[in-house]
Design brief:
13 helices; Tscrpt_reg_LuxR_C; Sig_transdc_resp-reg_receiver; Response regulator transcription factor; Sig_transdc_resp-reg_C-effctor; phosphoprotein
Length: 237
């Protein structure tokens, strides 16, 4: 579940003066999007204009393509393939030399696998949802300008992963799984029933069962209890 944005920072009336950035919010929790909008979206004060919102991968790609924001605040765990799938499908927009769309991951997760996944996908930074409103606004403008932005403890994950051009995968077992299998794995480990997972990911129960079977086979595990212990040990829950 997404955590609420902490509002222990305020933005003064003049802070947004003279600068402007168009932003799309992508998160599957409507209340969280509403909270972020209230925190950063007072354009006259912050300089941030929220031009669109999306709750899943397909909506995100549609809204981003239509609005061409300068920065997208992107949750990592989304129905339809996750933040990595949004990045993959928006790669041409990121590569546009004249009007690039830049992505800043904003997630409750601080797992190394999540951080590295979206950075490899093309995101310019990664901050957690404990960030203050003031710091989030600052991060958005820094990403707009082309900087890379990370919550302090997450920067080490990126430095370790990209220390050399032939750096090994963060987790070879996880690399065997598809993005959808990883989503199912996390939800199973969090105690979701198959029907709940199907509803969350907009797929059938039979498809969920197929993904679980594939995950168990690839990880050489016997049941969902072993899978939960495996995921917990890797801080994926």
């Amino acid at each position: 579940m997404s955590e609420p944005t902490e509002a222990n920072g305020t933005t003064g009336p003049a802070e947004g003066a003279g600068r402007h950035v168009r932003v799309v919010l992508v998160d599957d929790h409507r209340m969280f999007r509403t909270g972020v909008q209230a925190e950063i979206g007072q354009t006259e004060q912050t300089g941030v204009e929220v031009v669109g919102e999306a709750a899943d991968v397909d909506q995100a790609v549609t809204v981003i393509t239509a609005t061409r924001p300068e920065v997208v605040l992107l949750d990592v765990h989304l129905p339809g393939g996750g933040g990595v799938e949004v990045l993959r499908r928006c790669a041409p927009l990121m590569a546009d030399a004249e009007q690039p769309v830049r992505f800043l991951a904003l997630s409750v997760s601080d797992a190394a696998e999540d951080v590295i996944g979206v950075i490899r996908g093309g995101a310019r930074g990664y901050v957690t949802k404990t960030i203050t409103g003031t710091d989030l606004i600052d991060s958005i403008f820094r990403v707009q300008e082309g900087d890379a932005v990370f919550s302090p403890r997450l920067a080490g994950f990126v430095l370790d992963a990209f220390a050399s051009t032939d750096a090994p995968p963060v987790d070879e077992d996880m690399d065997r799984l598809t993005q959808r299998e990883r989503e199912v794995l996390r939800l199973i480990a969090r105690g979701y029933a198959y029907k709940e997972i199907a509803k969350q990911l907009f797929i059938s129960v039979k498809t969920v069962e197929s993904h679980v079977s594939a995950v168990l086979r690839k990880l050489q595990l016997s049941n969902r209890h072993e899978l939960t212990r495996w995921a917990t040990a890797r801080r994926l829950v």
